[in-house]
Amino acid sequence: MGSGRKVAAPNAAFANAIQCYGFDFVDDHNESNAHPSPATVPVSLTLCESLGLSGKDLISAIALGNELVCRLGTAFLGKMYYQGFHPTSTCGTMGASVSAGKLMKLDRRELVYVQGIAGSMVSGLMAWNSEGSYTKRLQAGHPAMCGIIAARMAQKGFNGPS
Fold it and tell me: From residue 99, how far is each of 3, 31, 62, 86, 130 by CA, in Å?
């Protein structure tokens, strides 16, 4: 955002999500211990621009992705955080992938595959804050990039576990 440069959609989502998290443009969802928007918003903005979609499409995709992040994180009762995994990244990958899938108008079967593919890409350690590490920013960038890649894979017939 803001540079006027064009890059491939996964790369744009990655860069914008890193900036979003790097500048702490985040929301909080206490029950899930996650920040749902740093991955879903960049994915949704990127795809709406590249696919020529509307503001209504943008809002729907963000809402769907954020809902999944919050529900998934809440299902873990906050334990994921204390087991060393970062819900913003782990749940963010799943949310970003459904945001992407919705905007790409995937059918039900493809959306199931998107979740299976995205689940295979999940990562994010709470160690992001140790030893002066810069990896906190990856906790949003990687999910955003993987969300688009997973949706594109499913759209092209690549399947994932249901």
Answer: 24, 21, 6, 20, 31
